[in-house]
Design goal:
By secondary structure, the protein is α+β, with helices and mostly antiparallel strands. Helix content is about 45%, strand content about 25%. It has a four-stranded antiparallel beta sheet with strand order 1-2-3-4, sandwiched between helices. α1 packs antiparallel against α2.
Length: about 90
């Protein structure tokens, strides 16, 4: 599901300006890569750790199971918090 979230974000930003979607993906992949060092230090929201992206208004929701970071969702922070909660519960 997190892959679909990235794809949706890519298409949204690519419609705004050609090339911006690729910048979005590069930024979010970099944020995800940082979890190999910093996974587990972020606040817990709705039962998931939440990493806020440095450049875009997106949050990466993840859990740690047996020292492995599992990214469950990458969601737009501008959405209604109840929508975000429902999306996370469904996963």
């Amino acid at each position: 599901m997190a892959e679909k979230d990235l794809e949706d974000g890519y298409h949204f930003y690519e419609r705004q300006s050609p090339g911006l979607g690729f910048y979005f993906l590069d930024t979010l992949y970099s944020d995800i890569d940082s979890l190999s060092y910093f996974g587990g230090i972020h606040n817990t929201i709705f039962g998931y750790h939440r990493l806020l992206s440095k450049r875009f208004p997106f949050a990466i929701y993840y859990k740690i199971l047996n020292d492995i970071v599992i990214v469950s969702a990458i969601l737009d922070c501008r959405r209604n918090p109840s929508w975000i909660k429902q999306r996370l519960i469904a996963r």
